[in-house]
Amino acid sequence: MVNSVEIKEVGPREGAQFEGINDPLHWKTHEKVRLVYALARAGIKTIEVTSFVSPRAVPQMADAENVSSMLQLIPDVTFNAVYLDRRGLARALATQKYKITGRILLSASDAFAMANVRRTLDQDLDEQRYLINEYHAHATPVTEGVVMAAFGCNYEGAISIQRVLERCRLLMDLARSAGDSLQDLCLADTMGWADPEQIRRTVDTIWQRWPHLRLSLHLHDTRGMGMANVYAGLLAGVQKYETAIGGLGGCPFSGVAAGNVPTEDVAFLCEKMGIKTGLHLGRLVACVKLAEDMVGHKLPGRISHVLVPSSDDFQAVKTGA
């Protein structure tokens, strides 16, 4: 079991991505930025703000540059952005607002990759090589890999652990061929297929092969297993989690959508287990209320329905950057 965890907040990006499927203008640009500032005031140190993807495919992310221009850097807080190809990386770099890490990614599901980025595995490998060249052009080594759909896929069904290990090996080979070495690996349960035993088995198997890797989990709650999977990850020794305030989110290319595990619920679980997060639970719940006002409906997180933030908590998260 771990003594402390690092939580990366992906709610602003995931929330805008999913809540805006039917109405791309549902979330105003200034509201997205306001939520980012509120989360920082709740103790979040790493926040995924937006995605630099095709505005034709994901019109709700068409304001990525506008969000970035409004964003003021905050001491000791890191802003990240998602990009899936070299064009997206170039757009993110141009804003000068995001920490660019040498991150490469592959899907464990070929069918999901085709739906998500319209690329075969060979095409995806070529795109990652182009990304690596761009990273090196900006003096950024490749140190992080992501395996999407690592636990199952709505298009292909169950994903074997052998397939996951193969994708891990491909990512490592890509980095090694460029003279770099992966140090971090994120396993993304993109469509919410994972169960606790699968989490334990996958984590254990990867660490048996590559014990130096720092693993993180990106979990969705599509089948009601999200928090159980967090618990399994904690018991297995995973110290980094990607979560979303209130349980915001969902992938528009997954065939069915459900949010990420809620940041405040993960923080509450860790608190009860004596695991340090560095987060302020009352302020996190105040952030949930802010997010609910923005989306116009209740969010699926649980602790926010029974814990009432103080007036000081509300005031703290409403204060500007």
UniProtKB/TrEMBL annotation:
<dbReference type="InterPro" id="IPR000891">
    <property type="entry name" value="PYR_CT"/>
</dbReference>
<protein>
    <submittedName>
        <fullName>Hydroxymethylglutaryl-CoA lyase</fullName>
    </submittedName>
</protein>
<feature type="domain" description="Pyruvate carboxyltransferase">
    <location>
        <begin position="5"/>
        <end position="285"/>
    </location>
</feature>
<dbReference type="GO" id="GO:0046951">
    <property type="term" value="P:ketone body biosynthetic process"/>
</dbReference>
<dbReference type="InterPro" id="IPR043594">
    <property type="entry name" value="HMGL"/>
</dbReference>
<keyword id="KW-0456">Lyase</keyword>
<dbReference type="InterPro" id="IPR013785">
    <property type="entry name" value="Aldolase_TIM"/>
</dbReference>
<dbReference type="GO" id="GO:0046872">
    <property type="term" value="F:metal ion binding"/>
</dbReference>
<dbReference type="Pfam" id="PF00682">
    <property type="entry name" value="HMGL-like"/>
</dbReference>
<dbReference type="GO" id="GO:0006552">
    <property type="term" value="P:L-leucine catabolic process"/>
</dbReference>
<comment type="similarity">
    <text>Belongs to the HMG-CoA lyase family.</text>
</comment>
<dbReference type="GO" id="GO:0004419">
    <property type="term" value="F:hydroxymethylglutaryl-CoA lyase activity"/>
</dbReference>
<keyword id="KW-0479">Metal-binding</keyword>
